[in-house]
Design a protein that fits this description.
Strand content: 15-25%
Number of helices: 12
Radius of gyration: 24 Å
Structural class: alpha/beta
Number of strands: 21
Largest sheet: 9 strands, mixed
Shape: elongated
Strand order of the largest sheet: 13-16-19-18-17-20-12-3-21
CATH architecture of the largest domain: Alpha-Beta Barrel
Distance between the termini: 29 Å
CATH topology of the largest domain: TIM Barrel
Amino acid sequence: MTEQPFRPRWDFPEAKARHFEALNFVIQGDSEMCIGRSTKAIVNLSAIAYNVDQIRKRVGRKTDVMAVVKADGYGHGSVEVSSTALKSGANCLGVAVPEEGEELRKAGVDVPIAVLGLIRPEEAYRVVDFNLEQTLCSLEVAEALNQIASDKGTTVNVHLKIDTGMGRVGVPPGDALAFARRMGRFKNLSLKGIFSHLSCADEVDKTFARKQVHVFDGVVREIEASGIKIPKRHMANSAAILDLPESYFDLVRPGIMIYGLYPSTEVSRSIELKPAMTFATKVTFVKRVPSGSPISYGRTFTTQKETLVATLPVGYADGYSRLLSGRGEVLIKRCRVPLIGRICMDMCMIDVSGVENVQSGNDVVLFGEGLPVDEIAGKLGTINYEVVCAVGKRVPRVYIG
């Protein structure tokens, strides 16, 4: 695969709006100034670039890198992340649904974009219209893609997915050769790659992951022995890039590590990563309340002494989970302070009694440097993926670096 430059087209309204939001952002000491809402997701594109460069150094120049930018770049912004990743060593992009690929095409991205999720036959036109590459494990979808491509006088690149143990989607290993042969009958489909997905490469015990790699390699060899050419074989996700070099094949698919986060606590830290997102807001109101004052819905928290309460303009509608109520902390003036009372849809409260001179407008970090995403995920009983992906659409993404 030939590496192609990213050429942004800023006449696409969403990309243009996000670009100029980034220009309005300025770091001045410990404070931030930006036109617009106080609550923001600040994305450091230099960190994204660093992480992709580290991945590129690990896998070498002979192995392609597919930057996975689904779910709006894991909440970081797919257009901006794609631009940075492609300039930093990625060759192509991966999304989950055709609409995500459509957004990138409209933003001027002209490198290969693979739809890693499945589609229904009635969605096939989107793949063809926007020159996307489609995951296949259904002849029904293959037929629909072929027909639309034939009608339009073009061909569609497809990737055959093999289920080696994930149990989600994919052709069973024993049926892969027959499926590949039947796919060959569709004249307007071109087999671009064959791939599988690792289910537990992020665990300490790699036994099952290595078994999956072995099964996949066997399937590939069988198909190639039949005379079918496979341009790209791919399997490695972020965890495998860190710990399973035997899974690299022709292409790797880093996802969470692009954003500076490790897939789990059980993988090695063999590649240094820099977290890219800071979720931040500002104090909007400060009040001193007496002992015995209930705070927020349900009166689940009552002050035990005179307390200085600061209100923040962020809540669960912004992706700041209600499950953090009574257990979460934030950073203000480099001090950790507790959330008190229930997190509301649009607001939450913190106890700033021990912090000097708190005023409306003070910066607050919800997660970022000094308060890692993984810590938030641990308190929620979930994974860092979910925390960053959950940051809501109404939260502006602001780009620095």
